[in-house]
Amino acid sequence: MIENRKFKLSVFLISAFAFLSVPAVACTIGEEVQAELPFNATDISNRDRLAIADIVIEAKKWPDAEIQAVVIAGAYKREQNVERLKEIRAENVKAYLRELGIKDDNILIDRKTFTDEMVARNSDGALTVHQVVVELTPICKGSCAWLCGDSRVTPKTRAIR
């Protein structure tokens, strides 16, 4: 019985050592745009549309991967008709992403109401509120880990070995 325990312990230790000696590879792949809209406005500016188009162009370079878009459509608590603003902003961004070729099923919307604790103030006291954030990430069959070593992809963080 003692021999059996020693054998199991030896197998466990050898397996653990083998697992730990293999380098782990990880990276972060994604694109992001943050847009600050005038208070109570729902239209995305041409500048912000170009920024969104630029990240979609970059994401379309990901080989053998679909694109998932996570959209934060928010409104600052002191804007008028907060719920309506969040809804219209979400629909505007979603429609634009569809125009750019992102599949409807791959667009996730998160509506947020921003409080004073969630926004930044400039040195002059003016608020900086990014009411719209678009984050693109790859969707791969199985895992996207292989993209970390692909020369066509620029990871946002470097590989960990």
The gist of it:
This protein has a single domain, classed as OmpA-like domain (60s Ribosomal Protein L30, Chain: A), CATH 3.30.1330.
Q: Outline, from the CA principal axes?
A: elongated
| CATH topology value | 60s Ribosomal Protein L30, Chain: A
Output the CATH homologous superfamily: OmpA-like domain
Count of strand segments: 6
Q: Could you say what the CATH architecture is?
A: 2-Layer Sandwich
Structure classification: alpha+beta
CATH top level label: Alpha Beta
Order of H and E elements: HEHEHEEEE
What oligomeric state do these chains adopt? Answer: single chain
- Nearest-integer average pLDDT: 85
**For the report, how would you describe the main beta sheet?**
4 strands, mixed
Strand order of the largest sheet: 1-6-2-3
Strand content: 15-25%
Characterise the protein shown here:
- Helix 3 (82-99) links the parallel strand 2 (66-76) and strand 3.
- It is elongated and about 45 Å long.
- 32% of the residues lie in helices and 22% in strands.
- The strands form 2 sheets. The chain has a 4-stranded mixed sheet.
- The protein has 3 helices and 6 strands; from the N terminus they run H-E-H-E-H-E-E-E-E.
- With 161 residues, the chain is an alpha+beta fold.
- The protein has one domain: 60s Ribosomal Protein L30, Chain: A (2-Layer Sandwich).
Secondary-structure topology with pairs:
Elements: H1 2-21, E1 31-35, H2 46-59, E2 66-76, H3 82-99, E3 107-114, E4 120-121, E5 127-128, E6 132-139
Parallel strand pairs: 2-3
Antiparallel strand pairs: 1-6, 2-6, 4-5
